[in-house]
Amino acid sequence: MTASPATSHDTIRAVQWQGDHLRLLDQRLLPREERWIDCRNAGEVTQAIRDLAVRGAPAIGIAAAWGVVLAAQQGAELDQALAQLRAARPTAVNLMWALDRMKGRIAAGADVVALEREAQAIQDEDLAANRHMGELGAALIVPGSGVMTHCNTGSLATAGYGTALGVIRAGVSAGRIEQVFAGETRPWQQGARLTMWELVRDGIPARLIADSAASHLMRSGVVQWVIVGADRIAANGDTANKIGTYQLAIAARHHGVKFMVVAPSSTVDMATANGDDIEIELRDAAELLSVAGQRTVVDGADAWNPVFDVTPAELIDAIVTERGVIERPNAKAMQAMFGH
Ligand code: MRU
Hints:
Elements: E1 15-17, E2 22-25, E3 36-39, H1 42-50, H2 57-73, H3 78-86, H4 93-107, H5 112-138, E4 145-149, H6 164-173, E5 177-183, H7 190-201, E6 207-209, H8 214-219, E7 225-228, E8 232-234, E9 239-242, H9 245-255, E10 258-262, E11 268-269, H10 286-289, E12 290-291, E13 294-295, E14 308-311, E15 318-321, E16 324-327, H11 331-338
Helix pairs in contact: 1-2, 1-3, 2-3, 2-4, 2-5, 4-5, 5-6
């Protein structure tokens, strides 16, 4: 069902439709264990999204679309399934975008087979977009460059190949990128646990850095681009992404390092004027108070755990989508590419 990998730098498919259930590679357990979980109804898909068994903006949209198919197969109340899935996480607009697409097909009278076709199209289009963005983004990088990335934007976070990690895959394949650094991405460690797993598995040489080493790395002159994904891009180009992205953009500008956002057009939200209007997910303080399930902070301590932040458009050098590249994004350029 899922498209096969195109290159040796692209071997992972973490969201797999099985005809009557959805199989997900459980991202909570990587890299220590590669365990698959089977979701058999929309409630189980909702839970998997909320608990981060599946995560990354495009992947949660794709999983949610399959959740709607499961609900339709079982004759469940579709409005209820749509509402439940929509409420699973607030920041990544791909979730709402995919559900709106499914809702549109339901409103047009689609049967189960047609809904299955729509979910598969959402998944296939994402993979195609990633491959195209990989080429577009890699073309911006001068051969011999070093890059750093944040969070996980790879095959695990998408239908396959990845957004920012797709650009890195393409840039490495084309010989443009010589060094890759991945920030560990506290507190959930998407960079350390997931990005490094993908890169090692696909044979891409990379080094992990502590999040707090980023400015020091940029000052050394070794990296020319910071390349990240997005959870929502507002109409003026302001971009919500994993917490810590904003400080990387500030540090990049200070050091003359370029900053690239890579995301499919399903991440663009022209209905949100600017980043101030993007809801930032707050997760349980417990995620910050423990490491690998072990409490590391004194009992009685509290924590504040916003899991996304907003990078203002003026700190972004390029937004790469499958529709093309916007350099120095602003509302006018966004409107020209994404306005109707
Ligand atoms: O909380 P997560 O792991 O779902 O956050 C993921 C990110 O912030 C990614 O950078 C973003 O979704 C882009 S994934 C292609």
